[in-house]
Each structure stands twice: as structure tokens, then as C-alpha cells.
Amino acid sequence: MTTREKLINLRKSLGLGQEEFGARINVSDQYISQIETGKRNAGLKFLKKISEAFKVPVASLLGDEDKFIITEDEESFILRLLRTATPEEKNKILSAVYRIKKVPLREIPVLGYVRAGEPLELLDITEPIDLVLLPEGETRGVSYAVIVKGDSMKDKGVEDGDRLLIDPESAVENGNLVIAIIDNRATFKMYKKTDGKVFLEPANDHYESIELTPNMNVELLRVKMIMKKV
């Protein structure tokens, strides 16, 4: 017997219609209908709700085909695959997903590293060290990506290993996240104008701001997107 069939049997044995059954676990009758007709997976989170509401063991709800693998939904399943995949496997998975959904993809070169902390000496990189695949419509203006090293922007949700997608043509405005190249050393910070002065602000109390002064040779590059490390 499948999980779907066991859930139908449980509901009927309790004498409940789809609407009342769903209300007991705080989901709609449409959701229950999709589970029972096989249009939606009965994931572990859903089964736990049923277990708690009707005092039945989760194991008793599992069908033979679900004894080893349970996915909460398509997105959760893909995310679990990505967490354990190598960089090459991640690109293949994403490429397959987007191809199925007919979303045009772009290959964006990863050209090096930037320090979220003390400035990092720039190196001459002649070849990309990696490639990232992203939907074309979401990456207009993006020319390349760099990898974050350090934790000075962690309070903005940017962590070591995340990819920063750079739009070198966009004007930098107050409050933007930027890569600042100062005398051939690069750092990742927030651009902040205050009382006629310009600062590069960290998002971590363990680091200090950097004031930009007229005598510095500074190039600012706007960070358009952040791609989280999976």
C-alpha cells in the first residue's frame, strides 16, 4: 500500500471529509485533495502534522515505496541534492531544472575572491576559476562574479563562500553593497555617505569602517545580486 492510500484510509476510518481532515492539521481541503490524487507529495513535515493531530506513528503512514526517501516538496528535494553535490554536479542539476522549465540560462564567470574584512590584494586572473548558471532574466547587467572571503558582512546575511554578482556599469548609490578597489586592494562593504564624508561600512561589529578620502585611488563596483553558497 502506498502512503497516499494509507492517508485516504486513515481519513475515512476517522469519518472525516477532506475539509475537516485538513482543518485538523491547518491545511486546505484542496491541499488534501492534491495529496490524495497524487498531484502533491506527502512529505515528512505533512506526515508529522498528521501524526501529532491523530496520534498515529509516522512509520505507520509510510508506503513501501517511501521507506527510504521522503521529500517535503520538489524544492526541498532539489536543495538537499545541491547541498551534497560537487560544484560540477550542482551546475548539472540547475541546468536540468531550468531546461525543464524552459528558462534561458547564462554562464557567469567567477573571476576571483574579495575580502569581507581587510582588503585583499588583487591578482591577475586570466581564466575564470568557476562558472555559475543563473536565469538570464535575473542577471541583466551582471558581467562576472567573485567569491566572498571573511565575515565582515555577516549581519547583512553575506557569508564566507557566497558569490557576489557584479554590475560594473551601474552607478553606486548611498546604501549599496559594493566592491571597493583601493590602491589595487579589494574589499566588500556597504557604501555610505554621511555629513559630506564617504565610508565603507562593515556589517559586523568586529570590523571598523574605512573612510574614503580624495587622496585614495578608488574604484567602486556595485554588487547586483548575492548567490548563497549551497
CATH fold assignment of the largest domain = Umud Fragment, subunit A
**CATH architecture grouping of the largest domain:** Ribbon
Going by CATH, what is the homologous superfamily of the largest domain? Umud Fragment, subunit A
Low-pLDDT windows of residues:
67-72
Largest sheet, described in full?
A: 10 strands, mixed
Amino- and carboxy-terminal Cα gap: 36 Å
CATH class of the largest domain: Mainly Beta
Helical content (DSSP H or I, runs of 4+): 25-40%
Compressed to H and E, one letter per element, the order equals HHHHHHHEEEEEEEEEE
Oligomer: single chain
Number of domains: 3
Strand tally is: 10
Mean pLDDT: 81
Q: Judging from the principal axes of the Cα atoms, what is the shape?
A: elongated
Description:
- The protein is an alpha+beta fold and 230 residues long.
- It contains seven helices and ten strands.
- It has helices at 3-13, 18-24, 29-36, 44-54, 58-61, 74-84, 87-100; strands spanning 105-115, 120-121, 130-135, 144-149, 163-167, 177-182, 185-194, 197-201, 210-212, 218-227.
- Strands 1, 2, 3, 4, 5, 6, 7, 8, 9 and 10 form a ten-stranded mixed sheet that branches.
- Helix 2 packs across helix 3 (29-36).
- It is elongated and about 80 Å long.
- The two termini are 36 Å apart.
